[in-house]
Amino acid sequence: MKKTVLILAVLAALLAATVGAASANGGPHGGYTPTTDACAGCHRTHTASGARLLIDTSTYSLCMSCHGSAGTGADTNVADGFFLSTRSESTHGTANTADNAPLLGGGFSYYAGAATTSTHDVTNSVTYAWGTGTAGRGEAALLAGGAALNCASCHDPHGSSNYRILRDTVNGIPVAVAQVDEGTTKDYDTEQWGVGTSSFCAACHDAYHQTAVGQGSILDDGSYTHRIDMNWAYGGNVNPETVGLSGSYLPLSQSSTLGLVVCMTCHLPHGTSAQMTGIADGGPLGTGNIPGNTTAIDSALLRLDNRAVCEVCHQK
Ligand code: HEC
Ligand code: HEC
Ligand code: HEC
Ligand code: HEC
Ligand code: HEC
Ligand code: HEC
Q1: pLDDT of 143-184, one tens digit each?
Q2: Is residue 46 packed enough to be buried (19+ CB in 10 Å), middle (13-18) or exposed (0-12)?
Q3: How far apart are the CA of 93 and the centre of ligand 2, in A?
Q4: Quick check: CB of 63 below 6 Å from ligand 4?
């Protein structure tokens, strides 16, 4: 029985992967016709294996059946963090994305060829997020309705009006993330996000989204925090997108007001393999537990080793 379900799942997955080709959302995600067959790629009406009538036991394993290491339904391998056009029949991104290119979101198990040192845990086991709801920075509180974090907390499998099918409502809060995207052809190794990317993160980490001038010297929520959503220019700063430092660059938001520093300028949304050593491993006064600290085994989703994210901009 289990085996039949699995075979059906794989067949349905392959079918769904080839059918969604015309959708700007990519893959089997949205753009459905009135007689679409796409639903059958992920749902069973009477004999489902998981809640929400899923053909797999959980949202996570359903996503990974196509996007995981052994997935054959999508070229974007989010487990190992790279794109490979020979993984599936999907043509999304193949014209614009180099094989083996690291994915923009990072990876859940590996990124840039190394094991990850921090990830958003999407296995349905965490319900608390830093600075959510009324919690301040450094405090964790329950997500809306006590929901557990999984892939569908951030992405809508049925497509959305946002960049990369990010949900129109995240954690109960409406979000809009502009698509400066390329439409149906896709490009999975060039950042394409526009206005609203920080608001997306803030839907779950509101206390971190502070935007006032001189924010780093304004006490709120019991601590001081780096300003977000401003242009990169300040003091002796260089443009981290074009100047870089020792080959390291940081992406800025692409929007009408170019060059904004957003959450994803410093953080990767899926997972990173950045190394935290020396003072960045716990810190002189640190216990080694986040928040406020990074450690050798918890790099806080930072894009670059230690505090290279600071140096690329400020170049002190
Ligand atoms: C790529 C896989 C996938 C496809 C294709 C898909 N779904 Fe879903 N669907 C899901 C997942 C995963 C959930 C659970 C989301 C969650 O955990 O919040 C879900 C949830 C739902 C829900 C309940 C929650 C909600 O969003 O309203 C409905 C109804 C639904 N799907 C209908 C459909 C229909 C109808 C189709 C075809 C047009 C379809 N789905 C196609 C994966 C899929
Ligand atoms: C049946 C296979 C299949 C399943 C199941 C599936 N996907 Fe996809 N997904 C694809 C394909 C194909 C693409 C197009 C890009 C590619 O080839 O990797 C895609 C693209 C995406 C994209 C990029 C969308 C864009 O705008 O470019 C996201 C995000 C995504 N999937 C998330 C999910 C999540 C979350 C789940 C689980 C709820 C899921 N997928 C389940 C096949 C699948
Ligand atoms: C915390 C929110 C969040 C969670 C949880 C999440 N994603 Fe994403 N994902 C994003 C964001 C943001 C992007 C866009 C990254 C970029 O373009 O810089 C993205 C991008 C993607 C892409 C496009 C390829 C890439 O890496 O850019 C795919 C496919 C995808 N996600 C699938 C998944 C799957 C499958 C899961 C669960 C295993 C998942 N995501 C969990 C936020 C999330
Ligand atoms: C993408 C560029 C960029 C990166 C990366 C960056 N900064 Fe900044 N930083 C700025 C800008 C712009 C300001 C000015 C903010 C304002 O207008 O109030 C600033 C301000 C500051 C200030 C002064 C705050 C105040 O209000 O007095 C400090 C201290 C600082 N940054 C430290 C850091 C540290 C530490 C890191 C690494 C975690 C970092 N920065 C990463 C761009 C950046
Ligand atoms: C300038 C780089 C930079 C930007 C921009 C940035 N962060 Fe961070 N973030 C860090 C660093 C560095 C850490 C590691 C802990 C520390 O040094 O405070 C961190 C840690 C975190 C943590 C882990 C808990 C904690 O407090 O240590 C969360 C959650 C977080 N950031 C969320 C966000 C969100 C949400 C945004 C956007 C609103 C954002 N960050 C923007 C650099 C940044
Ligand atoms: C749907 C809710 C949700 C969204 C959206 C979300 N996060 Fe998180 N985030 C969480 C939860 C829950 C945790 C704690 C569990 C964990 O560590 O995986 C977390 C943890 C973190 C951490 C600490 C990671 C560590 O090493 O423990 C950082 C940093 C972070 N998020 C940054 C971001 C950034 C940047 C974005 C936007 C790209 C974002 N988050 C979007 C729910 C969310």
Answers
A1: 999 999 999 999 999 999 899 999 999 999 999 998 776 667
A2: exposed
A3: 12
A4: no
